[in-house]
Amino acid sequence: MRAVVLGGGGLTGRCSVRDLATGGVFDSVVAADLDAGLAQSAAKAAGPLAVAETLDVRDGPAVVRLLRDADVCVNAVQYTFNLAVMEAALAAEVPYLDFGGLFHMTRRQLAMDAAFREAGTIAIPGFGQVPGISNVLAMQATEDLERVESLVIRDAWRDLTVGGPEISFTWSPSTFLDEMILPAQVFENGAYREYPPMSGGEEFDFAEPIGRTKVYRTLHSEPATLPESLKAKGIRHCEWKEGGPGIDVLRTMALLGLGSESALDVHGQKVTPRAFTLALLKREKLLGAPEGIVVDDWEVCDIEIRGTRDGRAVVRHALARFPPRPDWNLTATEYAVGVAGAIGAELIATGAVAATGVVPPERCIPPGLLRDALARRGIQTTIDPREGPLPSFRDGAPARSRA
Questions:
Q1: What is the spatial distance between Cα 310 and Cα 312, in angstroms, rounded to a whole number?
Q2: Beta bridge partners of 302
Q3: Cα–Cα distances in Å, from 128 out to 75, 187, 207?
Q4: Nearest CA to 99 among 122, 71, 84, 80?
């Protein structure tokens, strides 16, 4: 079988390539990227089953040609290209998944459901770490409840790396800037309401090693699909909050206008602040973990569920703790997003996901299979109090099965 990872040389795509190429399911994995050097580096790190391709996803016919006869397409490019890549996957009749659409793009993608159903194939929008793993855990945690009143998804991070950089980006800085600029969407009393980005700050106690962290509302994809998925259980509230070291830097960058796409005239040259910022971050090597250090950052997602079971009020938490992958030089976010995409690709290719259409992950990914696959990669999950709290930090994490 053959998997294609678009954006396969990027921060998260290179992890998907490596995980897929060492997983024993696929015979060939294509790392396709606009940057030929990044594609080649990702393929080389992944081993003999991986090959590099130079590709611009804005060239629709070229994307279709590359996807022909593939068993699955993992889309790890910037979310603004999701619809274009989906259209190419549809034309090639290849199953598709991506890592998120920052709410608005996700909702536009859902409108392609009938076309994918007619083609008899599946597209899963937002199956990475958060969104993705968060959606599936939330759905499993509510399965025995008669009613679901609210879901609050909180995510925080902490860096314990010795000698690490003061600033680095472990996720698309362009997406991060959008989260700092665009209004947050909160599902409230059965309807969506906009809130200013970085509003609703609250201190929250996360599982170790994160601890007490201030989190804020930002635009995210979980509220785009979970309210509809839980509509039959009467959900009235759903929101996302995040926080951790560096989020204040991101907000400052946004306030300074560094995310703007309105061109400026600088000494007779037209340049957009966002393009300048992205080029500068790349030049200064601030994307991902630098070589020569042992990565030791962590992330915890805590999904607070309120509802009723047997007529009684219930409060529970679905939890996931994401470790780094220092032997692959991957931060917690890069590793979690990348392996989620790889797991999704394997589940699709092996027939464990049988749905067709454009289907959010919480409605098509088997939670037991997902959580088992995560555990094999050292990612711990639980539903508390039903299953108990997460194990003590660094204690009880299963050994990773991948080379």
A1: 6
A2: 154, 319
A3: 10, 21, 21
A4: 80
Kindly indicate whether the domain formed by 2-128+340-349 is annotated with CATH number 3.40.1390.10: no
2: which strand partners? 28
Q: Domain extents for the chain?
A: 2-128+340-349, 133-333+377-384
Instruction: Report d(CA 399, CA 242) in Å as an integer.
Output: 28
Would you say residue 394 has pLDDT above 80? no
Bridge partner residues of 28 (DSSP): 2
* pTM listed for this prediction: 0.94
Q: Which residues contact 190 (CB under 8 A, 6 or more apart)?
A: 236
Confidence band, pLDDT 50/70/90 cuts, at residue 395: low
Instruction: Give percent of the chain with pLDDT exceeding 90.
Output: 89
For residues 33 and 24, give the distance between their C-alpha atoms in angstroms, rounded to a whole number: 23
What does the alpha-carbon distance between residue 303 and residue 171 come to, in Å, rounded to a whole number? Answer: 21
pLDDT band at 26 (very low <50, low <70, confident <90, very high): very high
Buried b (16+ CB within 10 A) or exposed e, 159-177: bebeebeeebbbbbbbbbb
Tokens of 17: 């390539």
Residues 6 or more apart in contact with residue 259 via CB below 8 angstroms = 174, 177, 178, 180, 181, 253, 273, 274, 277
Give how far Cα 39 sits from Cα of 29, 54, 159, 242, 311, Å: 12, 7, 28, 31, 55
Three-class SS state of 159: strand
Q: Which fold has domain 133-333+377-384?
A: Dihydrodipicolinate Reductase; domain 2 (3.30.360)
Which residues have C-beta within 8 Å of that of residue 388, sequence separation ≥ 6?
382
CA pair distance 339, 23, nearest whole angstrom: 11
Instruction: Tell me which residue of 127, 130, 134, 27 sits closest to 349, measured CA to CA.
Output: 27
**218-254 pLDDT tens trace:** 999 999 999 999 999 999 999 999 999 989 999 999 9
- C-alpha–C-alpha distance, residues 118 and 194, integer Å: 34
CA distance 3 to 274: 32
Residues with Cβ within 8 Å of 327's Cβ and at least 6 positions away in sequence, in order, are: none
